[in-house]
Amino acid sequence: MIFQNVIWAITLTGMGLVALGFIYAVTQAGRPADAAEAARAHRTSTTLRRALFAALLLLGIGIAWASLRPFPIPAQHAPLQAAQVVDVVGHQWTWDVSQTHLMAGEPVEFRVTASDVNHGFAIYAPDGRIVIQTQAMPGFTNKILYTFLTPGTYRIMCLEYCGVAHNGMTAELDVAARGDKS
Amino acid sequence: MSSLELYPQDEKLPRGEHVAFNLYMITALLLFVVMMLLGLTMRMTQADWTPVQAAMFYKVMTMHGAGMVGTMSLASTAVMWFFLRKYVSLHLWAFMSNYVLFMLGALCIIWAVFVGDFASAWTFLYPLPVHSMGLWSNGAAALFMVGYLLIGVGMLLFYLDAAAAIIHRFGNLGRGLGLQWLFGGEIDPNHPKAVVASTMVIIANSLGILAGAVVLVMCLINAYDPEVALNALVVKNLIYWFGHMIINATIYMGVIAVYELLPRYTGKPYGVSRPFLWSWAASTLFVIIVFPHHLLMDYAEPRWMLVMGQIISYAAGFPVFLVTAYGVLTNIHHSGLRWTMPSMLAVLALFGWAAGIVPAIIDGTIGVNRVMHNTQWVPGHFHFYLLLGVLPMVLTLLYHVVGSRRRAPVNSGTDRAGLLLYVVGGISFCMVFLYAGHMSVARRFSTHLPEWLPYDQAGSIAAMVLILGMLVFATRIIVGLLKAPIDADPAHPAG
């Protein structure tokens, strides 16, 4: 399943739950409670808030743990030992890419920097979805480690606003199937 | 605890304050409409419906961003001032100095953008302001930054006055924030929520503005002496510290209107509690240190800062969901709430804030940010909590004030129709952004790929509906604010 679609579904669920909470309270807003009802509602509300706190705390810790181990960004100060290495330099408004023909199924190390201003180095898959990105900054080299799973033509786009021709700053990567020498 | 009387005497505006409040709010409403029209121009350009050239598009984008952030700050500052002045002694000169400096700063920014062709986005990431490829001069960049500095100085003046007033009344800022009751002791039920929230904003936003001032001065020096080279990553950290703080402060200032006004419409007391104080104490810390979540794709950033950015983004959700949103829901539950414009807008505001931070928190995950950063997901979530959260907070107060002039809450069919347009347009507008973001549509592009156009067209139509609603609000409120003579009601004389 496409990762962005999972994120979209989770987001809709979260926003939907918030909306349900509001809809429930709004539909109950018009009828004032008597003293006994109010006391009961207060007790229920306190219990529910504690349960929600515990649930959100566990959820937050669980997601943080799962999403940060292993750390999703490769080591920046150690060799990445990738079979393919590509040096990328962003300029206003072109990409200088040392190698545009790559092999699927083998890790690629992208060393990304910029010569002038901040750029955003994003790789779009043939289906039009982003697969990975990092910032291209003058004075720094950000390293990505990515393995292309599907052969095809991938598009590089600049995702950090860098001036008037920002949206035209594109390049292409040809990713061949493993063993395809054409 | 604030009064449950709908229009208490201590909220009346004497002549000078009345003029100041009207100046702030009428300026803000007009600017909101203009900035929304600029936003619509951008969406229609992306939809290929208007022939705006790239150079103009990016100028409009810069103006829209700077203008919206500034206007949100201006309006929410007026919300904070309106309520805080009931509890501490604020000086009108400080409030008005902020307005004058804001207007001077705004003029500098408008001149820099539309005369000087400056188009570096409101975030002015170094070194773009001084590396325009000949499209604008260093002078235009400097004027833009001087505009920001003027606005920042105005805000600091107001905060200093407010801080002095809170310290004078409560002893120190910690006591204003209610820290003395975090671990025990009997909480003063009359301790105002407005003071707690204002204290938090004063502490956190002053730091953010100071970070902004430092980076602006650094960039100004660099503009005229390039030998003084700057570290792009350090500058980016300072810019996002400032940028994140200043826009988030608008929520914390705006929400004071909900705290103060909603209980009057529900008729249920909404006092200060220990969870409330804990949530504001925690938010003070979180909002100051959460800014690295804007730099999750800067792999050169120290790892601990990236981890902190993600974890604090998650933690920041607790006070919003479990205290403020939950508190509002329990306050309206079985309350006999009177559904009028202020109460509807207050509930909408809390919904917009709570729902809008869901995609924001999710995007604060490094693994998610890797595919969502700088897509339309980002404007999707911040438009959600600004358009459907902060702006309705401001409108809550404005409709309340207009109602107070005639001693009855506003609730006409026209205003309700405006609200319907605003809600339908606003939710659609933001959800289109979010949907497009998950489809990897880039933000800040003047020209879009053919396959992206349907989202832009849907977004443009939604924006038009939203703006229609906003036009209704702006017209009705401006007329209401101007029409009501100060001394119209003998029971409410000008002081």
UniProtKB/TrEMBL annotation, chain A:
<keyword id="KW-0479">Metal-binding</keyword>
<feature type="transmembrane region" description="Helical">
    <location>
        <begin position="6"/>
        <end position="27"/>
    </location>
</feature>
<dbReference type="GO" id="GO:0016020">
    <property type="term" value="C:membrane"/>
</dbReference>
<keyword id="KW-0812">Transmembrane</keyword>
<keyword id="KW-0186">Copper</keyword>
<keyword id="KW-1133">Transmembrane helix</keyword>
<keyword id="KW-0813">Transport</keyword>
<dbReference type="GO" id="GO:0042773">
    <property type="term" value="P:ATP synthesis coupled electron transport"/>
</dbReference>
<keyword id="KW-0472">Membrane</keyword>
<feature type="domain" description="Cytochrome oxidase subunit II copper A binding">
    <location>
        <begin position="81"/>
        <end position="182"/>
    </location>
</feature>
<keyword id="KW-0249">Electron transport</keyword>
<dbReference type="InterPro" id="IPR002429">
    <property type="entry name" value="CcO_II-like_C"/>
</dbReference>
<dbReference type="InterPro" id="IPR008972">
    <property type="entry name" value="Cupredoxin"/>
</dbReference>
<dbReference type="InterPro" id="IPR045187">
    <property type="entry name" value="CcO_II"/>
</dbReference>
<dbReference type="InterPro" id="IPR001505">
    <property type="entry name" value="Copper_CuA"/>
</dbReference>
<feature type="transmembrane region" description="Helical">
    <location>
        <begin position="48"/>
        <end position="68"/>
    </location>
</feature>
<dbReference type="GO" id="GO:0004129">
    <property type="term" value="F:cytochrome-c oxidase activity"/>
</dbReference>
<dbReference type="GO" id="GO:0005507">
    <property type="term" value="F:copper ion binding"/>
</dbReference>
<comment type="similarity">
    <text>Belongs to the cytochrome c oxidase subunit 2 family.</text>
</comment>
<dbReference type="Pfam" id="PF00116">
    <property type="entry name" value="COX2"/>
</dbReference>
<protein>
    <submittedName>
        <fullName>Cytochrome oxidase</fullName>
    </submittedName>
</protein>
UniProtKB/TrEMBL annotation, chain B:
<feature type="transmembrane region" description="Helical">
    <location>
        <begin position="62"/>
        <end position="84"/>
    </location>
</feature>
<dbReference type="Pfam" id="PF00115">
    <property type="entry name" value="COX1"/>
</dbReference>
<dbReference type="GO" id="GO:0004129">
    <property type="term" value="F:cytochrome-c oxidase activity"/>
</dbReference>
<dbReference type="InterPro" id="IPR000883">
    <property type="entry name" value="Cyt_C_Oxase_1"/>
</dbReference>
<feature type="transmembrane region" description="Helical">
    <location>
        <begin position="96"/>
        <end position="115"/>
    </location>
</feature>
<keyword id="KW-0679">Respiratory chain</keyword>
<feature type="transmembrane region" description="Helical">
    <location>
        <begin position="311"/>
        <end position="332"/>
    </location>
</feature>
<feature type="transmembrane region" description="Helical">
    <location>
        <begin position="458"/>
        <end position="479"/>
    </location>
</feature>
<feature type="transmembrane region" description="Helical">
    <location>
        <begin position="382"/>
        <end position="399"/>
    </location>
</feature>
<feature type="transmembrane region" description="Helical">
    <location>
        <begin position="274"/>
        <end position="291"/>
    </location>
</feature>
<dbReference type="GO" id="GO:0016020">
    <property type="term" value="C:membrane"/>
</dbReference>
<dbReference type="GO" id="GO:0020037">
    <property type="term" value="F:heme binding"/>
</dbReference>
<dbReference type="GO" id="GO:0009060">
    <property type="term" value="P:aerobic respiration"/>
</dbReference>
<feature type="transmembrane region" description="Helical">
    <location>
        <begin position="239"/>
        <end position="262"/>
    </location>
</feature>
<keyword id="KW-0812">Transmembrane</keyword>
<feature type="transmembrane region" description="Helical">
    <location>
        <begin position="201"/>
        <end position="224"/>
    </location>
</feature>
<keyword id="KW-0472">Membrane</keyword>
<feature type="transmembrane region" description="Helical">
    <location>
        <begin position="135"/>
        <end position="160"/>
    </location>
</feature>
<keyword id="KW-0249">Electron transport</keyword>
<feature type="transmembrane region" description="Helical">
    <location>
        <begin position="344"/>
        <end position="362"/>
    </location>
</feature>
<keyword id="KW-0813">Transport</keyword>
<feature type="transmembrane region" description="Helical">
    <location>
        <begin position="419"/>
        <end position="438"/>
    </location>
</feature>
